[in-house]
Amino acid sequence: MHGHSAVGGYSGNAVKPIALRFIAELGQNPALAGMHISAMGGVESWMDALEFILLGGGSVQVTTAVMQYGYRIIEDLKSGLNLYLAEKGFSCIREAIGLGLDTLSPSTDTLERDTVVYPQFIRERCVGCGRCQISCADGGHQAIRLDENRRPRLNGKNCVGCHLCILVCPQQAICPGTKRIRPKG
Ligand SMILES: Cc1cc2nc3c(=O)[nH]c(=O)nc-3n(C[C@H](O)[C@H](O)[C@H](O)COP(=O)(O)O)c2cc1C
Ligand code: SF4
Ligand code: SF4
Fold this sequence. Notes:
Layout: H1 16-28, E1 38-39, H2 46-54, E2 59-60, H3 64-69, H4 72-87, E3 115-121, H5 131-138, E4 144-146, E5 152-154, H6 164-168, E6 174-181
Parallel strand pairs: 1-2
Antiparallel strand pairs: 3-6, 4-5
Helix pairs in contact: 2-4
Bound molecules: flavin mononucleotide and iron/sulfur cluster (2 copies).
Residues 121, 126-132, 152, 169, 171, 173-174 line the site of one iron/sulfur cluster.
């Protein structure tokens, strides 16, 4: 403005871990028990919204994602959330509010790391885009190769159960599968 610039403003998906932490702290605060918490900070998808609800959000606000993609993403968010809750047997979204608070660890350092949960590929949903293979390979583990039909195949020896592949799949064609306890040493 008038030949000057400034650095400021922080919103969107990058702010989500910080926002989740604060919503969880509000959700766990006994002085706020029963109070409505309106959550926000980096919500783009129904999965983001669900994370906030599980940590105590009674409603969820969306700003940056609507500015970037338009109001239509709210319909996707609602239908994704409804489908998920129905699949999991919830009769009402209120039943999910704060459900994750009791099992929230105080930090990532205290999480158990000896169990590997392998990804499971849902072949009917896969479109062969290869994002899971690229992310796993360039993320350092090289545990996925694409077969002759561009469908992912897992090399369990290299898989550490990080679930990066699940996060990047645009088709939700990967989900958590079988567990294995990592041998000691
Ligand atoms: C361009 C822009 C303008 C904003 N204006 C306001 C505002 O006037 N008052 C306010 O309380 N928050 C404002 N916010 C903050 C948002 O309401 C929201 O809390 C924040 O961006 C985090 O959510 P989000 O990641 O969904 O954007 C603004 C955010 C953006 C990106
Ligand atoms: S869980 Fe992690 S290591 Fe295993 S296949 Fe997926 S991205 Fe690779
Ligand atoms: S990212 Fe998903 S859709 Fe793409 S190849 Fe992997 S499993 Fe298939």
